[in-house]
């Protein structure tokens, strides 16, 4: 039932490690509505409607991936203590209870934190002359010239760089909202994380199709779609993993709405930017169902600490999981 495939099983492969910015990022997450976590929220164990809840998902949604890893290493006492401290930050108006809105805002801020951090980091790195705008020349120099060691020789200007540079130029122009040739920090954020910006939507769709459309017919076929997520050559022609088969079925059942075995722009848009599912809302409701003991639509610190295993992990819960695995064997 829970066919919310958080698609952005990040597609990191392509240019990772080659380029510091812009274009590279489009490969990281193809879905605009970022997943709260890289985990599936529910594991559909077998097909008799038995759905197992994945606690790692909740921990990552509530803490962020990096923090969740840190909490796992803590003792129960320490992780509960830190959760108590977090409560005071989530309870924005400091009146002793967390409302649904406060929890939603928190999860949202966890979700966008990595983007704001990334924008800050790249802004500092690119903005060499430290004014409050980045011109195309400045971006071009730090990104592409730097790659050629500041001495672009014709033979070093590979086709791939030229293609990426051209793509970045187009995206830069689109991000430059006031069209004055330089990006301020907000425009720069749209440039390096267009997936977060409604006005970049059309371009994101175009770029995604261009990236995946091997035969250049303007559509993403089933084969092109699957090749993008799992390249059999790269995987030495090993047996296709089961999740690829699941993706194939999902493509045919849910993404290819007009059943012509390829995605057009509208279908790509609905895939990248699903309109029917608000994962922050869903996660908030889920956490309330777990923790709101007296069902008054507010969480007290006691209610949250009582369910610390739902919100955060700790060493003891991991041992518990391990015990269960051994019992299953
Ligand atoms: C805290 O404030 C919320 C509204 O922000 C309110 O609904 C709730 O009743 C308040 N809780 C307490 C304990 O005052
Ligand atoms: C930044 O500017 C300084 C001085 O203008 C220059 O020496 C340096 O190479 C520049 N760094 C980059 C990454 O362009
Ligand atoms: C372009 O506008 C930004 C603000 O959006 C400003 O900081 C920058 O100086 C302007 N650049 C030019 C070349 O006018
Ligand atoms: C494919 O084979 C090569 C050479 O044997 C190996 O280095 C590489 O790790 C393999 N890739 C995968 C995904 O198994």
Automatic annotation (TrEMBL):
PROSITE patterns in UniProt: EF_HAND_1, EF_HAND_2
Signal peptide interval: 1-16
One Gene Ontology cellular component: endoplasmic reticulum lumen
SMART domains from the UniProt entry: EFh
GO BP of this protein: protein transport
Subunit-level organization: Interacts with PCSK6 (immature form including the propeptide); probably involved in the maturation and the secretion of PCSK6.
Protein known as: Reticulocalbin-3
Lineage: Eukaryota, Metazoa, Spiralia, Gnathifera, Rotifera
